[in-house]
Structure formats: structure tokens, C-alpha cells
Amino acid sequence: MVTDATSDDLGADAHDNLWWYSDGTVWDLGPAEFDADGDGRADSLTSEIEGFSAILTDADGDGRVDRMSVLRSDGRVAAWQLEDSGGEWNPTALGRVE
């Protein structure tokens, strides 16, 4: 979910929003919806990637999405983590929900 809405439209401070960097563009994804790791801080949101459900997470608290989990309609699950050096997504888990 990429939005053209400003943070004023969303009722939140843009600094609290999650963002994604791709191909020279920064995408404002809006505010985090839930706490995926149980630390008391909302750090994740749900979205759709290529027609599949996804959870996008800012694990280190800087606002940039650095973990991604995708659930495909056939039950396959894949997860990736962004390298600390800032460029490449590396697979961390592959599996299937039965």
C-alpha cells in the first residue's frame, strides 16, 4: 500500500511512518499498525506485494522496512531481511503453511 496522502491527512507524524527505498525512490507506507516482536512499539504493517499478503517490519526502529514476510495463496511463505549495509534483501526463511 503506497499512498500519496500526507502525514496530516493520516493524523500522524510522518517521522512515525514506515518507509521503503527502491530504485532511487523513498515510499512512505504510513504508520505501523501492530507490534510484531512484542517490545511494545508498533513496528509492522500489512500490505500486498504482487497480489499476495505481506507483513512489512522495521525491526531496528529507524523507520525503514528491513524485514518482509510474504504469504502466497498456495500456502508458501517466504521471508527476507535487508542487509545492514543497506542494499540487498536476503532470504531468511522459506516454507509452507499446511
UniProtKB/TrEMBL annotation:
Domain DUF6802: 24-96
Superkingdom classification of source: Bacteria
Pfam families hit by this protein: DUF6802
Protein name: DUF6802 domain-containing protein
Organism the protein comes from: Gordonia phthalatica
